Amino acid sequence: MAIQWRRTVGQDRIKGSFSRSVANGQIGHAYLFAGKSGVGKFSLALELALYFLCESTQKPCYECAGCRKVLAHSHQDFRYLFPLNFSTEHKVKGNAQKLSDAGWDYIAEEMKKRLRDPYYALAPGGSISVEWIRDMNQAISRGASGSGWTVVIIDGIDTLRAESANAMLKTLEEPPANTIMILLTESVHGVLPTIKSRCQIHRFGSIEPEHLAAELNRRFPDRGEDIPRITSLSYGSLGTAIALMDHDETGDSAIARWFDIAFSPADPLDQALALEMFVEQELDKDFSRGMKIVNALIEECRFAFLHRYGSGAEYIFSSVAATRLRTLSPDDVKQVIASAEEALISLKKHSPMLMVFVNLTLKLLEISNE
Ligand SMILES: [Zn+2]
Fold this sequence. Notes:
Distance between the termini: 59 Å
Helix content: 40-55%
Low-confidence stretches: none
Shape: globular
CATH superfamily of the largest domain: P-loop containing nucleotide triphosphate hydrolases
CATH topology of the largest domain: Rossmann fold
Bound molecules: zinc ion
CATH architecture of the largest domain: 3-Layer(aba) Sandwich
Mean pLDDT: 86
Structural class: alpha/beta
């Protein structure tokens, strides 16, 4: 029975591959979906879960009891885990591993948002609690009930801490029959080799601009005039595009402002002062914006490569940065990407924003002056 894909935008190659596997009865027990945020990894994984747990003939139907229970997160054969920023009130006092009632409520709240819209972005910097993994292990070892399948989706598999990863590995090594685990990551390099080696890997690329624009038109029918600009700013990520449509006018201008400071030749003292003011005004209140800027720099580097090899490179964000990056050698651009990735790691560890941006800006200067 073919899979009735309804909600995942683009990614036709991967959809086709799963449609064929299902038709041939060749279902793996562990998959790793890799790709940047907002390109549809979770959406496609959720549609697969619905397919296996749907009780109708046209699967998934989104209407039967099975589909509804998955979407309400009350299906006992479905688990979805994702990184969250748990605070002390979410943990039981004196036992940092155990989630309090407030912790489980927090999971339920965030879960509702993710299931309502699979492209709803996760907040950066979270982690998966080990107790949540243990709950999943129990569900798997209990075995499937009605449908015959148990489906587990774990998002942000690269963020698992050692203890959670160990708790999960046993299940991944010896999964009971009819269990499907779908692991999601933005960075395949960050996934433990012991996890990677047990999975079939699917790499998700950017969503094509025409698919992205069509989906934005469907979601925001009155905002036609914003759509071409947002499509080009969101680097093929529907999650980013929705976030930009929803609220983040100031986020865009912050990216442009940083590119101007970092890439425009200026007196070093002026540049340092401009940077300090920028961090204070734009980033100190909004942690996620720092991550967004560094990600935008990495994207810009990718498009600089594409440009070199003759692609139309439609997604170029900042002409100042683009002009500058295109004059660098491929090795220099690689160095810029490496510095940006280091900055992301520092931000995830909650290093001071000003320090991260001063270091990154200095590295850029060093690389482009060599
Ligand atoms: Zn159904």
